[in-house]
Write a structure and sequence with these properties.
UDP N-Acetylglucosamine Acyltransferase, domain 1; Spore Coat Polysaccharide Biosynthesis Protein SpsA, Chain A; 2 domains; seven-stranded mixed beta sheet; 30 strands
């Protein structure tokens, strides 16, 4: 039975990403000028998923407004609230049981950015007739994740949640595949961890102790959990690097004399003045105005943003901002409706600026 259903995460408060996430759902943060969760949806659709169920924070409607019913991707998308407050990601899956029924499914933490395809993982799950399939990736800080434990023969025997002394440098990434009913049967046999949550690692540990056939595959290409600001910038860089040349058309107005090199997307209605230099990879959204500035490499500029005088590198700029400064803005994330004015400055500056902020120097 092929996997046609998937659960994607859309809730949580993402406190490590504040102030950006104070006024925007983490999963809507733009990476390569596209909401983060769109990348997860596209990976699922590419692998053959036809129905997606996304959890939301109680009372929030931003995800529904941004994503819609799935028609954009030719699939069906439904949303559900996680009841009873935050109780761990295993509880998110349990809440979606009424949608999944007796079908196999994928669970995808939408703040995981993946460059490779999920098709190979799905194929391995089916051909090996596994009960569960985990995606692993080698990381520098495994203590932040669920960590697989292997015996001397290399067989997976347990999964440890955020261990203080990890037995290896592999992390269980936020992409999981399950056979019919197995997850929901296991959920009834686990308890909350000391931090008061139903841990996904407890589910997998239970599977292994019950002799279930849990397979694993190492992520090919590249994977990133965007839990911190630096992770977002790295994810943006790698997405830009791997985008096809055809995704970088010039659809705005570029004045003679402007210097544009590398992969540069210019959105409809945007104006690039003659005294502008853009070094790709760069994405400029729609209806932007760039004058007397240097942009790139590795910059995305949201729609409706005006930039004058600045040099911007390695940064994510949200929509509807006004940046009039001679600053060198680098390694920065700037929210929506931000005004940055500066008359004189030397050297680079690193900024993490929330929505509706005004900075005057």
């Amino acid at each position: 039975m092929r996997i046609k259903k998937a659960i994607l995460t859309g809730g949580g408060r993402a406190t490590r990403l504040q102030p950006i996430t104070t006024t925007i759902n983490k999963h809507l943060i733009p990476l390569a000028n596209k909401p983060m969760i769109f990348h997860a949806i596209e990976k699922a659709v590419e692998a053959g998923v036809q129905e997606i169920f996304i959890n939301t924070n109680p009372g929030e409607t931003d995800l529904q407004q941004a994503i819609g019913d799935g028609g954009h991707w030719g699939i069906r998308i439904e949303f559900f609230e996680q009841t009873g407050g935050p109780q761990g990601i295993a509880h998110v899956v349990k809440e979606a049981e009424r949608f999944i029924g007796n079908d196999p499914f994928m669970f995808y933490l939408s703040d995981n950015v993946l460059l490779g395809s999920l098709t190979e993982m799905f194929d391995k799950f089916h051909s090996g007739k596994y009960d569960c399939m985990l995606a692993l990736s080698e990381v520098k800080d495994p203590e932040r994740f669920g960590v697989p434990k292997f015996d001397v023969s290399g067989k997976l025997v347990d999964v440890l949640e955020k261990p203080q002394n990890p037995p290896n440098n592999f992390a269980v990434t936020g992409i999981y595949v399950y056979g019919p009913k197995i997850f929901f049967d296991a959920f009834d046999h686990i308890e909350k961890s000391p931090r008061g949550e139903y841990e996904i690692s407890s589910i997998h540990s239970y599977f292994l102790k019950q002799g279930r056939d849990v397979g694993y595959t190492e992520i090919t290409g590249w994977w990133k959990d965007t839990g911190k600001m630096d992770d977002l910038l790295i994810a943006s860089q790698l997405l830009l690097d791997h985008m096809d040349e055809r995704e970088f058309p010039h659809m705005g107005r570029v004045e003679a004399g402007a210097k544009i090199s590398g992969k540069v997307h210019i959105g409809i209605g945007s104006r690039i003045a003659q005294n502008v230099e853009i070094k790709g990879p760069v994405i400029i959204g729609e209806n932007c105005i760039l004058n007397n500035c240097q942009i790139g490499p590795y910059v995305t500029v949201g729609s409706g943003t005006e930039v004058s005088g600045a040099q911007i590198t390695d940064s994510i700029i949200f929509e509807n901002n006004e940046i009039q400064t001679d600053l060198h803005i680098t390694h920065s994330i700037i929210g929506k409706n931000v005004i940055i004015h500066k008359k004189t400055a030397e050297g680079g500056r690193s900024l993490i600026v929330g929505d509706k902020t005004i900075i005057e120097h």
